């Protein structure tokens, strides 16, 4: 479904097919590499995914034009930034997919453009 970063908007269009389904189902629909991720342990918890490196995000923040995919989950995240491997704190890894893949999606939000 998502062949290019801008296709992420399709996830919002077809959001209902992902609601109350595991996060891993949604991730299987994304072909571009997720280069930056962040878990927010709020209520509700969510993941922020970007298709660009963190340095590029900082540069684009000034231009206010950075595509962001936010996936809200039913469960509270066990995400501790300080315990993530140094230097790759923002990378989305295979271990993350294993750890968080079964969390249930409750909302999808897409902002900006690539």
Structure in words:
The chain is α+β, with helices and mostly antiparallel strands and 114 residues long. It is built from 4 helices and 4 strands; from the N terminus they run H-H-E-E-H-E-H-E. It has helices at 9-13, 23-27, 54-63, 94-100; strands spanning 36-40, 45-50, 68-73, 105-111. A 4-stranded antiparallel beta sheet has the order 1-2-3-4. It is globular, with a radius of gyration of 13 Å. The chain starts with 8 loop residues before the first helix and ends with a strand.
What would a concise description of this structure say?
The chain contains four helices and four strands; from the N terminus they run H-H-E-E-H-E-H-E.
- Helix residue percentage: 10-25%
DSSP strand count: 4
- Average pLDDT over all residues: 91
Oligomer: single chain
Radius of gyration: 13 Å
Keywords summarizing the entry:
four-stranded antiparallel beta sheet; about 110 residues; alpha+beta; about 25% helix
SSE layout and pairing:
Blueprint: H1 9-13, H2 23-27, E1 36-40, E2 45-50, H3 54-63, E3 68-73, H4 94-100, E4 105-111
Antiparallel strand pairs: 1-2, 2-3, 3-4
